[in-house]
Amino acid sequence: MADFSDLMIHHPETAEFWQALEEGRFLIRFCADCEKAHWYPRAICPHCHSAHTEWREGSGEGNIYSYSVMRRAETPYTIAYVRLDEGPILMTNIVDSDLEAITVEHRVRLAWGHKVDGQTMPMFALS
Known about the structure:
Layout lengths: L4 H6 L4 H8 L4 E5 L5 E2 L14 E5 L3 E10 L6 E8 L4 E6 L12 E4 L4 E2 L2 E2 L3 E3 L1
Antiparallel strand pairs: 1-2, 1-3, 4-5, 4-7, 5-6, 7-10, 8-9
């Protein structure tokens, strides 16, 4: 299995995002021209193709767009798509929550302190 941790930390387009997560801040890439947020963070806006993008503090809140509970795993867990209040949809895990309480459109917020292979990851909990 490939180890992509170096790409998450050292890639120039995303390094600031990962560093901010380690510091307890959630950044989202916005386009200064069309004012739309986008995920996955990248230097060129996928909406208008402008190179005038910038990091802005995100709310860390959103709604569950879609989800799946992995019940056959040794420890059941939930994978979800979350639509951030800023607009973009990202794939994540729902943690620190009752798996039976999860529903589409349920409000979620960032759950700090979750790491994968030593890297802080943006995971969410039910609000």
